Request: fold
Amino acid sequence: MPGIRAAHRRLARRFLLLCASPGAKCTVSNVLLVGGGHAHVAVLADWARSGCPASRAALLTPEPTLRYSGMVPGWISGEHALDDGIVDLAALARAAGVDLVLDRCIAIDPAARSVLTMHSGLMEFDIASLDTGGVGNASAAFGHDPHLLDVRPISAFVERIGQVHARLTLDGRSDHLRLAVIGGGAGGVELAFALNNWRGLDQRTNVTLIAGESGLLPGFSAAVRGRVERELERQSIALLPVDAWIEDGVLMAGEALVEADYMIAALGSGAPDWPRSGGMAVDEEGFVAVDRYQRSISHPHILAAGDIAARRDREVPHSGVHAVFAGPVLARNLRDIMAGKAPSDIYRPRWNHLYLMSTGAGEAIASYGPLGAQGRWVSRLKTWIDKRWIASYAAFGAQA
Reply:
């Protein structure tokens, strides 16, 4: 990477000057937030509220907005408008006093303290925080197929599924549409329900949910799985608890051929290549290995949260819920580090979290530990929680 070693030497000299005199406090002057994910919006809000502790800070992200993935199924089924689930990152960055760089990180040199972007070249930092999310797994699992749609990244999925919807409404083909959702987690379940109630189509689509050999909603209680199974049956959504693959353009589930015009892969996050390639410590799947303070275990001047990170002291599932709750912790630890202090805050997931899954038909199913509930009141609760989270960041943007 041209010039990267020279940049390292300049940064090293800067730190020596900052810390040379006895009793001097080593402070941070240049902070880079890589990615505009759920955790980083909490960091931006903290800086908008209390001031950015660094003399220079930048947010590197490919888009000026963050789309909240939890509201996408509701948009598909017509419960939300397209823009309801948007956080204005550009306005939030302005309120926080942070430079917005609309580009994508493609490489990192953690020792030289720099990242390489797709279009803007090198960006240097003293401290970096990573919250880019994961990458899609569909192509790696199934190969490239024009009828395969990966839910990650969520913005690309929204664009593609919107294009499919436009073609269907133009052609009037909805009564013959066959869809297969691959993935039995909460995201796959919600998408199956949403697509079965796709807004603006004349007739209900024919949806199959392929949950995989791990089954429907692994890790959820029997009570919640039972409610979901009954709702799938009520909506005539076929459930196949077998693994799937694509062979010569044909979708296979176990020994069965599944006829599908489109296949939607909700397989969870994959790890981007660049942390491992840059020499950062990663787990066996390639996610950035972090300690309980969200610091890289190999390069403690780099923090990471959200789907790109993997805690080494305990298991924290890759989920938007955990990214949201880890955000304020990340903000406080970044503030401590920039003040020359040791980080002290730890994200400790509660023994369980409330999960709310929309059925696409005016109700939602709640999961909390062993408990499950279903009804319109659950749907109203989900909408209230989702929109309150979005509105809490819109308020900062409005002040910018």
About this structure: The radius of gyration is 22 Å. The chain has a mean pLDDT of 89.
